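[Q] Does anyone have a clean structure-token version of this?
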Amino acid sequence: MPCDFTMQRALPRLLGLVLPACIVAAPAPAQDARGLSSPAISRCAGRVGLDTRQSDAAFGIIALDGRPWLKVEQTDAAVGSQPIATTVTGTGLQRRRNGTSVPFRFTCVLDAQGQALMVHIAHLMPRLGDALPPSIVVDGAATYREKTTLPRGVELQVQLLDVSKSADGEVLAEQAVRSGWHVPIPFSLRLPRVTSFEGRKIVVTARLVLAHRVMFLLREPQLLAGGELGKPLELELEKVE
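[A] Here you go.
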């Protein structure tokens, strides 16, 4: 749903915009039917991708972090005449076509139907001491064998799971990536620097999704040994027939 000018002016006053990312202490269940711990991540990523594509048809990479940097709150408010049901705040990363990356914080508002009305992005300024919290970063890229161009609106969903206690696993980190480039599609999973891996069994899962349809999938979760967490991951996804 397009946002009118009143909404664009009112959102900063309503939400304060530069809200800190929140580390959610409660264990997160693994994938829902959409492959992420909350469908709000994908809804907000789609809104960011749409807005960015409208201003730059050949945009690079926009990635929104999910757990543990995401905060989803029920909201009884309105922007202009539009009721707001949910406010989502978190962090993300923009990769430009010239190879540079810019981290940001975002605020996203959704209506009662779960549709993202608009997203505000505030780029960080590390030189002024404005930076993301200290973290362990697991970098990688996803690709597939088929020589085909991805349709507009495809999203890469990646999760880092601890499956030591259950097959479904606990989400340690996740990211939704919207790309204007061809594959491979890069991703960066961030965990708090204090994260301990002792006694844990760590795997990574990935899928390429269009709306609610999975197009490509990492058939089996890829097991990561402790020493592999600092090495770039290469994930080859298979087409889902």
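[Q] Thanks! Anything notable?
[A] Residues 36-239 form one domain.
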